[in-house]
Design brief:
The protein has 627 residues and is mainly beta. The chain has a 28-stranded parallel β-sheet that branches. Strands 42, 44, 45, 49, 50 and 51 form a 6-stranded mixed β-sheet that branches. The chain is elongated, with a radius of gyration of 44 Å.
Length: 627
């Protein structure tokens, strides 16, 4: 089986300056830890760089958590006066240490004759303006170069139509971990020289993501996340794009995911396990959705493009192979790649050939915005026959192993078949017959995996679902919940619950009935014919009379209630009368309670006759106190 040459992972080892006995370390405030003579003020970063360039040693410049603003018209510059002392600039972290400028077009330039300049753990922020750039490395030379480690280069505010190379280097180049934001018209990374380069784990947002330039030696673009307005990657000579996602988010007829252009004869462009995604659905007509892979030769060069285990989705054309002038040759070979290969979606013309091994364009992404493969994707385990062996150290875009299962997957992400995890919440104790709730929370590291829950309550019964209810008989029970993902991977949680017997109901002893000789008990009094001389009056009203009739001697109690909504509520009591003889009685009624006038409202007076411990049926009189 054919294996494609890839860039060695450790290609920069040993390319630095010859070893020296010691190295100088300089601090620029607020960084600390250096001798006073080697410590510079925050505004003296360039002085520190110049000192390191002339000290004759491989030097390190430590920066603190601060913003270093260059007010000069000349960019911050890393140089080497003695040609043998490479410099390393180390910040406090991305977003904590920031290099920027208020005057110069470029923020940082490195121009060394020998050795590798290393920039690490910081952010470079450019300012808007024509051709303003973030970092500019050496233009050429195998013995010098630039290494970026965990570096963000932000240049998002360029005016529309203004292009700038956000990061540019022509010598040996390496960028491991970071971000490049270059605005709608800028280029996130331009490689212009003829030396080997490695770019890995970098997110790029730009008009054009990466332009590889005229590199005669291999360029490896590995695990990149590119969002571009026009073109994701421009390849002019030997380059490999691997385990990456290229997304185009603006419609245009001329856009392309990867554009391979002939820059010289005999070079090869490899596109391996890469996912190319066109403009969002509905954003443009088909003729404005561009092309996934464009391979063009416009001279007498001979070029080959290999598209393997990759995905092309959402473009107007999947592949366009073309030739502007006679005499050249551009050959495109696809292998185990998923795209629409119908004649309407693939065009081929000019010298060279197009050989296709296309899978059906059914991708099984987790979602439109998440191109990871679901468990049921048809692109799992179909990328290569079983004899395929991933390149040493190769990981997918998520940083996971490339080949999991009988064969590699197609696209930037490898479905990992990882087992879920589960945590359960169950009471430790309960009472027999009590209903308890058992809850489980499952998580799955594989996106898009739906989980099922199966419970064993430990008493011969079970249930299903993340939350279940159950009642136990007394005793100790061992419960278990099993969470299963769609591929059969499981996770289990188990525990015990101690169920106590329910308390016995209280014993009720019924005493024997008490037999008493019959007696003639006094009867309850009766109160009738109760009335008020007026039913509506003011609180200042005088001369009100309350009348009622008693059938026997009794006292009379008065309870005053006021209407609250639809109900009457007690607000107080009037003085109870002395024992009155039977017959018709009258009593003056004053609309006061405890000496205070009644407030306007609806009231009810409840009269009850009391004699020999017996109470009559209450009689209720309603009245209204007006304003």
């Amino acid at each position: 089986m054919r294996r494609l040459p890839l860039v060695p992972v450790l290609f920069l080892v040993g390319l630095g300056a010859p070893g020296v006995a010691s190295a100088g370390t300089f601090c620029v405030k607020p960084a600390t830890g250096c001798a006073a003579v080697d410590t510079f003020e925050q505004t003296e970063l360039q002085n520190a760089l110049d000192t390191a360039a002339s000290d004759g040693e491989a030097s390190t410049i430590r920066l603190g958590a601060a913003t270093y603003t260059n007010t000069s018209a000349v960019p911050f510059s890393v140089k080497d006066v003695n040609n043998t002392d490479p410099t390393t600039v180390v910040g406090a972290g991305r977003g904590q240490t920031v290099l920027t400028t208020s005057n110069a077009a470029d923020v940082l330039r490195t121009d060394v004759a020998t050795g590798i300049t290393t920039i690490r753990d910081l952010t470079v922020r450019a300012t808007p303006g024509a051709m303003h750039r973030g970092i500019v490395g050496p233009t050429s030379g195998a013995a010098r170069g630039l290494t970026l480690e965990r570096v963000d280069v932000l240049n998002p505010d360029q005016p529309a139509g203004v292009g700038a190379d956000n990061v540019v280097s022509g010598a040996t180049f390496q960028w491991i971990g970071g971000t490049s934001v270059a605005g709608a018209s800028g280029i996130g990374l331009r490689l212009t020289g003829g030396n080997i380069s490695l770019v890995r784990d970098v997110a790029i947002d730009a008009g054009i993501g990466v332009a590889t330039g005229f590199s005669a030696l291999p360029v490896l673009l590995d695990r990149l996340r590119i969002t571009a307005r026009t073109t994701g990657v421009v390849i002019t000579r030997a380059a490999t794009v691997r385990d990456s996602v290229v997304r185009i988010d603006a419609p245009a007829a001329s856009l392309s995911g990867i554009d391979v252009q002939s820059g010289d004869s005999g070079y090869t462009a490899n596109i391996l396990n890469t996912t190319l995604i066109g403009p969002p659905d509905g954003s443009a007509a088909a003729n404005l959705r561009g092309v996934g892979v464009r391979a063009a030769v416009n001279n007498t060069d001979t070029t080959q493009v290999f598209l393997e285990r990759s995905i092309i989705s959402g473009f107007g054309l999947s592949i366009r192979r073309e030739q502007s002038n006679a005499g050249g040759s551009m050959s495109v070979t696809t292998r185990r790649s998923a795209y629409d290969s119908s004649p309407a979606k693939v065009t081929s013309g000019g010298g060279g050939s197009l050989v296709q091994d296309a899978l059906a364009p059914s991708f099984g992404f987790v979602s439109d915005s998440d191109p990871r493969l679901r468990f049921d994707s048809p692109l799992i385990d179909v990328g290569e026959p079983p004899a395929f062996v991933a390149s040493p150290g190769e990981l997918d875009l998520g940083g996971d192993p490339r080949e999991v299962g009988p064969a590699a997957d197609v696209g930037a992400f490898e479905y990992q078949r990882r087992a879920p995890a589960v945590a359960a919440t169950v009471p430790a104790t309960a009472t027999g017959g009590q209903v308890v709730t058992l809850t489980a929370t499952g998580t799955d590291p594989d996106a898009g995996d739906a989980l099922t829950y199966t419970w064993d309550f430990g008493d011969g019964t079970g249930g299903a679902g993340p939350s279940v209810s159950h009642s136990y008989a007394p005793g100790q029970r061992t419960w278990k919940v099993v969470v299963t993902d769609p591929t059969g991977q499981t996770a289990t949680a188990t525990g015990t619950i101690d169920v106590a017997a329910a308390p016995a109901p209280p014993v009720v002893v019924t005493p024997p009935p008490v037999v008493t000789p019959p007696t003639t008990a006094p009867r309850a009094p009766r109160l009738t014919r109760a009335s008020l001389s007026r039913r509506r009056f003011r609180a200042t009203q005088a001369g009100l009379v309350l009348r009622f009739t008693l059938d026997r001697r009794a006292r009379v109690a008065f309870v005053l209630q006021r209407r609250r909504g639809t109900r009457f509520r007690t607000v107080g009591s009037l003085p109870t009368t002395k024992t009155l003889p039977a017959g018709s009685r009258r009593r003056a009624f004053t609309p006061r309670l405890k000496g205070r006038r009644l407030v306007p409202g609806s009231y009810r007076l409840v009269l009850t006759a009391i004699a020999d411990g017996k109470r009559s049926t209450p009689v209720r009189l309603t009245f209204v106190v007006r304003r």
